[in-house]
Amino acid sequence: MTSSPPPSPTTSTSPTASASQEAVSEVTVRKPRTSVLYVSPEVASYFVAGGCAGAASRTVVSPLERLKIIQQVQPRTGDGQYKGVYRSLARMWREEGFKGFMRGNGINCLRIVPYSAVQFTTYEQLKKWFTKHGSRELDTPKRLASGALAGITSVCSTYPLDLVRSRLSIATASVSLTAAGAAPKVVAASIPSSIPLPHTAKHALASAYHTSSAIASGVSKAAAVSTSGYTKADLTIWGMTLKIMREEGGVKGLYRGLITTAVGVAPYVGINFAAYEFLRGIVTPPGKSSVWRKLSCGALAGSISQTLTYPFDVLRRKMQVTGMQNGSVKYSGALDALQSVVRAEGVAGLYRGLWPNLLKVAPSIATSFFVYELVKEFLIPP
After folding, report:
1. What SS3 class is residue 287?
2. Looking at per-residue confidence, does 284 or 324 come out higher?
3. pTM value?
4. Which sequence spans correspond to the domains of the chain?
5. Phi, psi at 322, each rounded to 5°
6. Around 302, how many Cα atoms within 13 Å sit in the side-chain half-sphere?
7. What is the pLDDT of residues 131-146, one digit of tens each?
8. What segment(s) does the record annotate as region Disordered (predicted)?
9. Which residues, 6+ apart, have CB-to-CB distance to 223 below 8 Å?
10. What is the second-level CATH architecture of the domain 41-179+231-379?
11. What is the mean pLDDT of residues 118-133?
């Protein structure tokens, strides 16, 4: 009589073992999901260094940045013109104090930190992609393409903040966006004496004082409205954003002039990066990379790229402020803005504000590249 063999241990599975296998398989399945969110320390370092570079560069030149915007959008024959760099800065200080120098810098830094971080990170990654992670030579066309694509990516991601910053810079300046002969409407009884006014508005206000001094003296700052129709609540980042969305077609209004900006930024950033790396190879050879040499490379690269692409910047500002209430000139598009400026002011109108902008760009780009490399070297030791 033959006895049946004992059951094999592999054929029987206990509930504990089964639960253990399911847990292991579940961990195995879930593991790749967490790896999708992983960001390498190198990419994170590019992002942090780029953000620090942007904030430092813009804060250093905040007064000149605001002056550039004002000179770009003010009419050629309007009242209260900002003329000359020194006189304009002195006027800005006299009328608005230190806050006038920093007006719009908060939102500018809020915009420039992600803008610069995205730009530098995208540029570094595109360089690796074009060169197959160092297996191919990085020539000038590849640098230009990397910079151009990085510029487009960064500007599209932060454009609404740029537009709101431009509006804030213009809204509090004592300059009329209305050309001579088209006087803006002034509500004299609602304007406090602490708000700087254009020349024509001062006459209207003086007349109001003669006819009704009691009304003028009873105006409170809380209910004050400027000559351009902006309340105190409007002169904040959130307030200006809501005002644009409310009066200019919703979210679409926050992207007015985006195409013109992207077209101008692409060659500007491309030339900027390509010129900087080219100059670094000449001005800072091995053993001669002093601070002043690095700063000189950034200043020269920024000046070259800005001069070549400045007309695009002028058109961008024109498009951004065309929806403001006290501006009499409206543009249907970038081409219309270009034709209007050339017809009214000639080609020179496309370079208005270039000089103060070059004074701004040289230290700004120099600071940007220097801080970027400094922070990157600190986070990623060579």
Report:
1. coil
2. 284
3. 0.62
4. 41-179+231-379, 185-227
5. -65, -20
6. 22
7. 887 778 888 899 999 9
8. 1-26
9. 190
10. Alpha/alpha barrel (1.50)
11. 92
